Amino acid sequence: MYGYHGWERLLFLPTFLDKSKLSRALQGKTILITGASSGIGEQLAYLLGSLPVHLILVARREEKLVAMKRDIEQEGATVSIYGADLRNADEMEGFLSFLHREPRGVDVVVNNAGLSIRRSIWDSVDRYHDFTRTMAINYFAPVRLLLSVLPVLRENGGQIVNISTVNTSLIPFPYWAAYQASKSAFDTWFRSASPEWNAEGIHTTSIYLPLVKTPMILPTAAYQGIPAMNPYHVAQIIAKSMYTKRKTFMPWWLPFGQLASIVGRGLWEWSAVKWLQNRRKS
Q1: Which residues are tagged catalytic?
Q2: Could you give the CA distance from residue 235 to residue 241 in angstroms, rounded to a whole number?
Q3: What region, left, alpha or beta, does residue 160 occupy, with left being phi > 0 and alpha being psi -120 to 50 degrees?
Q4: Residue-wise pLDDT tens digits, 107-118
Q5: Does the pTM exceed 0.90?
Q6: Domains of the chain (ranges plus CATH)?
């Protein structure tokens, strides 16, 4: 169904999306999608494009957003676009000013923008910026954005959907220090704040994803041949959460990985050292 092969069919079970329920739940609402110009964000924008909604799409590549706006508005949705690098404080402030000029504000925020980086800590000795820029987009940017829109989300009884990663629930892996730390930081912040938001009528959804076939993974040769989700499949999962208001989505196998991360921590840390030593020798 999603172009899955072999193990992917078992690892990533299909999602049934009720378009009628989705349309009723979102009719007349405004949905903000960050990182909307490619991958998951792009697929979600096109999926919602045939519904009676207002989409606000933000990403760095404004020219791609212009093309998406033209295509999507032919399907029925209204689209507003804003080109910005949300890591940049001035561009973030400009986007927030743009956002607050919306008459009805925002009803749903999909926090999708992010940066992945795989690099040995030894190759990062002179690259402190790897850590600051990863934290900037994966942690500080969504915190700044959500703090700004919380009052209107409370007024509208809105929803925040956070696109997270299974790595926040598993034992950390070598080469991923910058990425895993930044995603775990925001996941902890989001889960800590969620009860306060829920008490005020704001729905929250955390979606924990494994590897997804997006342009972000292309530069990493180690990803080639590894099972990965189809971004359209992920878009369906996100859209479904907008009418089910499900608090958490995770692959069926993640709890087993969480248990193994606890029980096998000592064994993993020993074997990881041996693996890295053998890798260095070879």
Answers
A1: 179
A2: 10
A3: beta
A4: 999 999 999 999
A5: yes
A6: 7-251 (3.40.50.720)
